[in-house]
C-alpha cells in the first residue's frame, strides 16, 4: 500500500482527530490565559494571603508534571465527588498546567513596565483599576507576547496527552490507526506532520501577527 | 466521601521510591544525551554551508513543535516495522534525549550568539585555531548565559519522564498505574507520585539557581 492510499483511507479519521485537538487547544488556551492573568496579578498583590495562594497554585502545577495532574483530575477527583467527563478533564488539566507557567510570564511582563509609567498614571490620578487596564497591562502584554508564543506551542503539544485518558484527539486517532494497519511510520509520521503544520503554519504566524498588531497599537511599530 | 488509607500508603511507598530511582536514571541518561546532541545541533547551525544550517534548523523546529509522547510512540513502534526491535528503555531514552537536544541547542545558540563579535575578531587577530577559539575563548563566555536555560531543562526533562510510562518504561508513573490497577485504588499512588515530584523538582530548581550564581562568581562575572 502506497502512502497516498494510506492517507486517502485514513484522512477522515485524521481530520476528526485534528478537530478535537484544535478544540482542546482553544479551550485549554482560554483557561490558561484566564488563570495566568489571575494568578500573575495575585502574585503581585500587597496582601500576603493572596500572594501565597497564587504561589501555591503556581508551584504545585509547575512542580509536578502534566501527566500526573491529568490522571489525578480524571481518576482521583471523582473520589471527592467531582466527576469530569474525559473531554473536560483533558482541557482543564492542560489549562491548569500551562496557566501556572503563564502566570510567571504575566508577573514578569508587568514587572518589566518601567516605574515611571506607574508614577505617571498615579500623577494624573487614575484609579488603580484604570491604571492597570489602560496603562500597565497593554505594555506588559507587548513585552510578554514573544514568550507566550512559545507557551502556545507547548500548550498545543501538551494537548496530545489527553489521548491517554481516551479523548479522541489526533494522537488518539494515530494510535488507533497504528493498531488497525500496523503501519507505524505512516500512522505516527502523519500525525507528527499535522502537529508540525498546526504549530508552524498556524499558531506561530498568528502570534507573530498579534505581536505586530499590539506594537502598532502602542505606537512602537 | 474519600478515605485516605495510611497503611496502604506505607505499603506502596517502598515500591514508589524504588521506581523514583528509575525516573531519576531516565532523566539523567536522557539529559546526558540531550547535552551532547544539543551541542552538535547548535554547532551544525554555525557551519559556513547555508544548506546544512537550514536543514538542521528545520529539524530542530520540527522536534520542538511536535509532542514528545507522539515522538516516543514513533521511535518505539517504527523500529520493529523495519526489523529493529528497541526495548522501551532504549526507545524512551532516544526519544526524550532527542526532544530535549532540540531545546538545548536553542539554549546553546543563544549563549554562543551572546558572545560579542569582538571576541571572534580578537581570536582571528591572534591567529588562534578554530578549536582553541571555541574551547578557550567562546564557550567559557557562552556558558554562564546558557546555564539558566540548561538548568530549567534538566528539571523539565525530569517532569517529562512520566510520559515514558506509555511504552512501559518502569518509572514512577508506570509503578503508580500498576499499583492503581491491581488494588483499584488511585488516590494514594497518584497523590504520592505528585508529592514525590514536588519534593524533587522544587529543591532541584533552587539548587540550580545557587549553582548558577556560583559559576558566575567563579568566572568573575558580576
UniProtKB/TrEMBL annotation, chain A:
Record-level Gene Ontology MF annotations: transmembrane transporter activity
Protein family: Belongs to the binding-protein-dependent transport system permease family. HisMQ subfamily.
Subcellular location: Cell inner membrane; Cell membrane
Protein name: Amino acid ABC transporter membrane protein 1 (PAAT family)
Pfam families (UniProt xref): BPD_transp_1
Cellular component GO terms, alphabetical: ATP-binding cassette (ABC) transporter complex
UniProt keyword Kinase present: no
Domain (ABC transmembrane type-1) ranges: 18-203
Domain of life assignment: Bacteria
Coiled coil: none
Alphabetized CDD domains for the sequence: TM_PBP2 (cd06261)
Keyword flag Transmembrane: yes
Entry-linked InterPro entries: AA_ABC_transptr_permease_3TM (IPR010065), ArtM/GltK/GlnP/TcyL/YhdX-like (IPR043429), Ectoine_EhuC (IPR014342), MetI-like (IPR000515), MetI-like_sf (IPR035906)
TM stretches of this protein: 20-42, 54-75, 87-106, 140-167, 187-210
UniProt keyword terms in alphabetical order: Amino-acid transport, Cell membrane, Membrane, Transmembrane, Transmembrane helix, Transport
Its membrane topology: Multi-pass membrane protein
GO biological process terms held by the UniProt record: amino acid transport
TrEMBL record, chain B:
Protein name from the UniProt record: Amino acid ABC transporter membrane protein 2 (PAAT family)
Keywords: Amino-acid transport, Cell membrane, Membrane, Transmembrane, Transmembrane helix, Transport
SUPFAM superfamilies: MetI-like
Membrane topology field: Multi-pass membrane protein
CDD domains in UniProt: TM_PBP2 (cd06261)
Transmembrane domains' residue ranges: 20-44, 65-84, 190-211
Domain ABC transmembrane type-1: 20-208
Principal subcellular localisation of the protein: membrane
Location relative to the cell: Cell inner membrane; Cell membrane
PROSITE patterns named in the record: ABC_TM1
Pfam families: BPD_transp_1 (PF00528)
Family statement: Belongs to the binding-protein-dependent transport system permease family. HisMQ subfamily.
Alphabetical GO biological process terms: amino acid transport
PANTHER family hit by this protein: L-CYSTINE TRANSPORT SYSTEM PERMEASE PROTEIN TCYL, MEMBRANE COMPONENT OF AMINO ACID ABC TRANSPORTER
InterPro entries xref list: AA_ABC_transptr_permease_3TM, ArtM/GltK/GlnP/TcyL/YhdX-like, Ectoine_EhuD, MetI-like, MetI-like_sf
Recorded GO MF terms: transmembrane transporter activity
Origin superkingdom: Bacteria
Any single Gene Ontology cellular-component annotation: ATP-binding cassette (ABC) transporter complex
NCBIfam families hit by this protein: ectoine_ehuD, HEQRo_perm_3TM
Amino acid at each position: 500500500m502506497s502512502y497516498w492510499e494510506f492517507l486517502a483511507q485514513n484522512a477522515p479519521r485524521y481530520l476528526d482527530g485534528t478537530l478535537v485537538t484544535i478544540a482542546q487547544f482553544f479551550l485549554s488556551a482560554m483557561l490558561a490565559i484566564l488563570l495566568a492573568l489571575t494568578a500573575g496579578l495575585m502574585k503581585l498583590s500587597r496582601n500576603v494571603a493572596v500572594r501565597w495562594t497564587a504561589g501555591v497554585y503556581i508551584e504545585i502545577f509547575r512542580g509536578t508534571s502534566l501527566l500526573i495532574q491529568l490522571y489525578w483530575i480524571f481518576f482521583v477527583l471523582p473520589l471527592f465527588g467531582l466527576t469530569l467527563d474525559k473531554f473536560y478533564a483533558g482541557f482543564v488539566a492542560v489549562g491548569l498546567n500551562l496557566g501556572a507557567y503563564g502566570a510567571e510570564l504575566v508577573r514578569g511582563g508587568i514587572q518589566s513596565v518601567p516605574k515611571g509609567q506607574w508614577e505617571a498614571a498615579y500623577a494624573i490620578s487614575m484609579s488603580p483599576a484604570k491604571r492597570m487596564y489602560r496603562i500597565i497591562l497593554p505594555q506588559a502584554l507587548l513585552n510578554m507576547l514573544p514568550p507566550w508564543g512559545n507557551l502556545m506551542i507547548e500548550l498545543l503539544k501538551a494537548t496530545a496527552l489527553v489521548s491517554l485518558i481516551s479523548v479522541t484527539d489526533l494522537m488518539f486517532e494515530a494510535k488507533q490507526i497504528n493498531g488497525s494497519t500496523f503501519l507505524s511510520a505512516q500512522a505516527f509520521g502523519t500525525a507528527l506532520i499535522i502537529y508540525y503544520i498546526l504549530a508552524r503554519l498556524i499558531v506561530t504566524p498568528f502570534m507573530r501577527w498579534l505581536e505586530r498588531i499590539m506594537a502598532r497599537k502602542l505606537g512602537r511599530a | 466521601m474519600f478515605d485516605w488509607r495510611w497503611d496502604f500508603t506505607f505499603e506502596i511507598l517502598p515500591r514508589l521510591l524504588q521506581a523514583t530511582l528509575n525516573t531519576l536514571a531516565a532523566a539523567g541518561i536522557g539529559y546526558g544525551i540531550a547535552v551532547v546532541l544539543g551541542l552538535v545541533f547548535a554547532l551544525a547551525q554555525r557551519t559556513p554551508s547555508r544548506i546544512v544550517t537550514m536543514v538542521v534548523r528545520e529539524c530542530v523546529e520540527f522536534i520542538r513543535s511536535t509532542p514528545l509522547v507522539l515522538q516516543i510512540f514513533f521511535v518505539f513502534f517504527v523500529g520493529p516495522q523495519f526489523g529493529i526491535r528497541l526495548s522501551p528503555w532504549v526507545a524512551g531514552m532516544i526519544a526524550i534525549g532527542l526532544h530535549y537536544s532540540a531545546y538545548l541547542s536553542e539554549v546553546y545558540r543563544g549563549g554562543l550568539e551572546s558572545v560579542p563579535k569582538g571576541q571572534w575578531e580578537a581570536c582571528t587577530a591572534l591567529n588562534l585555531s578554530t578549536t582553541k577559539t571555541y574551547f578557550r575563548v567562546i564557550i567559557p563566555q557562552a556558558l554562564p548565559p546558557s546555564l539558566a536555560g540548561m538548568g530549567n531543562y534538566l528539571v523539565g526533562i525530569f517532569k517529562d519522564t512520566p510520559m515514558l510510562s506509555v511504552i512501559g518504561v518502569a518509572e514512577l508513573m508506570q509503578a503508580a498505574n500498576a499499583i492503581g490497577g491491581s488494588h483499584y485504588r488511585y488516590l494514594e499512588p497518584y497523590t504520592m507520585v505528585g508529592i514525590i515530584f514536588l519534593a524533587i523538582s522544587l529543591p532541584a530548581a533552587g539548587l540550580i539557581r545557587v549553582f548558577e550564581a556560583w559559576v558566575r562568581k567563579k568566572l568573575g562575572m558580576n
